[in-house]
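Demo today. Your pick:
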Amino acid sequence: MLHLPQKPLQVAAALSQHNPTREDQAGPWHAEAVCRRDEAGLFFAPSKEPTAARLSREDAAKRVCARCPVMVDCREHALVQPEPYGVWGGLTAAERRVVLARRRRRDAELRAAATTSGRIAAAG
């Protein structure tokens, strides 16, 4: 998701600091983003948006993301930054927090398993 939210300086700074993970002849991944042609308000919440309106808007934004050829690149950008606002790569900010928490938990479990297997091998 490339649109500038109500906090444009934060997103603009994030995009300028980001080294795209996928560049080809057409340029960085966000050059191919479907959302470049859509209204920014679809991807970022106005202040004091009612819940029903937010859910409807987010659903519409996710439908745009679903047809985007760079959705995975966009999602990874939003997770790596991490982007605190808006719909990026088909995920809301809350959904991205869940994904990040799961990744942290998985990484911690893998580190713990590696430590345990190292102790077992040393004792063997």
